[in-house]
Amino acid sequence: MSQSVDRQANEILAADIRLRTPDPIPQFWEDTAKRYDLKTAETQTFPSVVFNENQSALATIKAVTQNYPLRGKIRIAKELYANEFEIEGIPEQGKVWVDGTLISRLNVNIGDNISVGQTDLTISAVLKYRPDQSIGFSSLAPSLLVNIKDIPSTGLVVEGSRVRNAFLVAGEEDSLDNFYNIIAPTMPESTRIRNREESLERTQNTADRAQRFLSLTAVISLLLSAVAIAMASRQFAYRRMDMVALMKSLGARQSFVISITCIHIFLVGLLGVILGSAMGFAIEKILIQIVGDLFATQLPNPSLKPILLGSGAAIILLSGFTLPSLIQLRNTSPLRVLRNDITPPSLSVFFISGCSLLTLGFLLYYILEDGWMLITVFTGLLVVSGSLYLIGLGLVMLMGKLRGQAGAAWRYGLANISKKGSKSVIQIVAFGLGLTVLLLLTFVRTDLIRGWQKTLDEDAPNYFLINVQRDQRQLINNLLLNANLEALTFVPLVRARMTKINNQDVKTYKFPDEEGRWMANREANLTWATELSSSNHLVKGEWWPKNYSGVPLVSLEEEAAMEMGVDIGDQLNFVIAGLEIETIVSNMREINWDSFQPNFFMVLTPGALDDFPRTYVASTRVEEHQKSVLHDITRNYPTVSIIDLNSILQQVKNIIDKASLAIQVVFLFTLAAGIAVLFAVVESTVDERRFEGALLKTLGLNRRTIMLGMLAEYTALGFVAGLLAACGASILAWLISVYFFEIDYEFSLVIWVYGLLSGIFLVSLSGLLATKKAITVSPLHTLRQGP
To answer: Do 84 and 189 share a domain, yes or no?
Structure first.
């Protein structure tokens, strides 16, 4: 599931890894990719003027090889505003797929020829969407997609031509890692590598959050398994005490006794690993068949890696959480053969906690790979466990005093809880932990999906208008108003290039991050603003006053500033149209890329760019039945480029849908594991229940009364555990949602209702089902066997 969400996000790159370089693609890259059975494709991107008779227009030529794209699908249409559809493959040699804006500018139709360099190509389709198309302003010209075999005949790519070559790679994760590790040391500085982590911000956040949630479910599963193993091993040791005492009384040494027990546990664990691995592998196969069609990308084939990881985790958990019980079993006295009430001394709480914490800490760190999240989850669960123990201890003592005020069944149930003392407290802790992690997972999942759905604003802009001239703004707004659309707010855009940071040339400046070097050396898009945009949030420094007229100030996007190693007060120099401008960094912003508004990494003070040439950009929402106004704009103002965001918005929605489906499926398995743990906790006391039931039946109580008493006991335990679990889950869900998933969390009484109801229902149900046998067995048979 995790890999499938990654693949869906990688469609933004049209590959799993994209290597971009101004130089020809090295043969070494291709050979290395072939060695690891990776799929590859190549692209060449460059600007050029294309012609049709007396019409001409600047275009971005995208030449691709046969395998393009490796991730995602190209979408085309047979007419300018016809419905689009997915297509396999690329244009045939001699054919070209052209962006709709370019078709309008050249005044051509499907089937016409256009001149690209020294050759003529036939327009065979309207290019609606390609997976790696940009929604920024770095490429203002509309694009056309051409077969790379046609490039030599155009004569446009010669030595010294400004061409961006890209090498696309896709395949299995291990093979991709091997490929990258081999070529990374040989890559020149001019090469830029991009993967999912550097893809479109919006899809990256979705995929990262899905990954974190899937990691969280793995952690929850481990915690539930740990609770189950601890309770089961405790019962296992208790049942074998008589046998160990007998063997010791017959002369067996402690090492022999413990060796037999360890072998027994190892064989049981091995059987569990084999059966669990087989079931997991089979379920994974079945899931791929069931939900595979719901994913736009092909799901990865099952591998042995999860089996090895699961087996290792099972062995580590089994070793760490059975050790305290084994040591206690080892200390069983031979006198137990004569006196059944003799039990080995209990181990130190610190020793048991130490074994458990070390085991869990090792596994959690390996899975999460996030130190802060590990500390939060770990500390939170420790606090919850301690609170459960202390509050549970107090409530157990309180129940002993309240039992006289209840009916017969409740008197029996509350007396049982009070009488067992520490055993009841341990059950409350076990039940409470199980319910806490299930509630935590449930509400984090709900908040995560709700947060994703909030980003899918149905009124979000779906078209960008760029390269708008100053005198065209009002004319375009008039067209929109006539079509019953809102007038646009145009944002100025000035092309510039950064030259110095603190008077040091950017070519020699030492950047803390290679992304910072790329950011500083690329062509920059600057704008100015009087007020902070609604899609931006100030994180450092202060925004300038409305009437500011001093030294030019610049506001930077927070992450870009960190990558360039720039802070408030630093000086940045830009060259615009041959003239240099000096700016001082005034503040830093966090940008909400989900808004699909025109956002800039660098924003200057009003007046700083008045003397420089500029164009304008804007975003708008145009519904399907209003698309004719876009045709009017491109026909009347051919210099204006219109970028269609519908396909990109749909791509984001697809990724969110797939991520939601993935976490829902995984959540169901974790929920089933949690319920199984509750049964395991109850099963650990079934022997005592059986003996108590036999005694009570011998004393004349009927089955109904005994059942009601046990039901009262489990209801009380479930109520306490559910109440405390709701409190712990609320706090943990808030911490994880806000600080790790970066989504809003709303405190709600629903979690308390769910906690109480699920605690009472699940604990009572599991208790009654597990102890049903305890009151159906013959009292004589039970009393002969003993407790």
So the answer is: yes
